[in-house]
Amino acid sequence: MRHLYACQVRWADLDVLGHVNNVAYLDYVQEARIDMLRTHAPEQRDALVEGALIVRNDVSYLAPLMLQESVAIEVWVTEIKAASFTLAYEVFDVDAEGNRVVYFRATSVTAPFLFGEARPRRLTPAEVEVLSRFLEPGESALPSRSAQQDRALRSAAPERTHRWEARVRFTDVDAYQHVNNVTYFEYFQEARISTFRRLFGDVASAETQSVVIAQMSVVYRRPIVLRPAPYTVRSWISRVGRSSYDVDAEIVDGDTVMARSRATLVTFDTTTQRAAQPSQAYRDVLLAELEG
């Protein structure tokens, strides 16, 4: 069984290309997840919604979504462990011919957490029973992660990185005064844009190659809290392909890593709305950055 949620699309969700911004999709699936648990697990709502941490998000962007009244989201469970569970999501529409148009897929690993004691806990039998109603083993929304991808999210940053200071806003935090998991994507996005500006100049200029995100993974290591002092986001180019490249990043507080990410970006032709090879000059900048 899958939970179906109709998510409202807002004008403020759009980016400069007129597409729903990559960060907004995480907000959409978060709303779908909360709606699923509130609807089908009212007795466990506080424990599974407010009393849980997102440990990891993996996302894949498949097609641009434009402004419309709402978009459909399916949510289901792909794995249940003793102290965590994995949800899968698909954001889609059904066209006039009855064909499904998929915009976005994602998975999230969630761990119940005792905030008063600052420690994780095991799922209760009642919680397992509710989650099992939506269990579809092997029906993940995304391909299995490779060992190389997982190693990349654990490896240390190189000596040469681009740095951006993330100042936490009051609106970034949740009921437990931790920065919401969606906002980490926003911090990584801002750091990535700052890196592009340093490498290529104004990212909105006509001379700059347009890019879209194809895939992104975020692993959460420590909670980020509201405070006057900023956190540092370090970003670097980790791979350059023919029409795509990877940007790795980590949020740190001194020597402590708070979160790590890898984003795969694809160069994009705004006229055809399709992937396109970048100019040689653009690619040369990426290669020079990769080689240090």
Automatic annotation (TrEMBL):
Q: Which SUPFAM superfamilies match?
A: Thioesterase/thiol ester dehydrase-isomerase
Classification via InterPro entries: 4-hydroxybenzoyl-CoA_TE (IPR050563), HotDog_dom_sf (IPR029069)
- Give the molecular function GO annotations: fatty acyl-CoA hydrolase activity
Pfam families in alphabetical order? 4HBT_2
Where in this chain does the entry annotate a coiled-coil region?
none
Give the protein's recorded name.
Acyl-CoA thioesterase
Organism for this UniProt entry: Nocardioides zeae
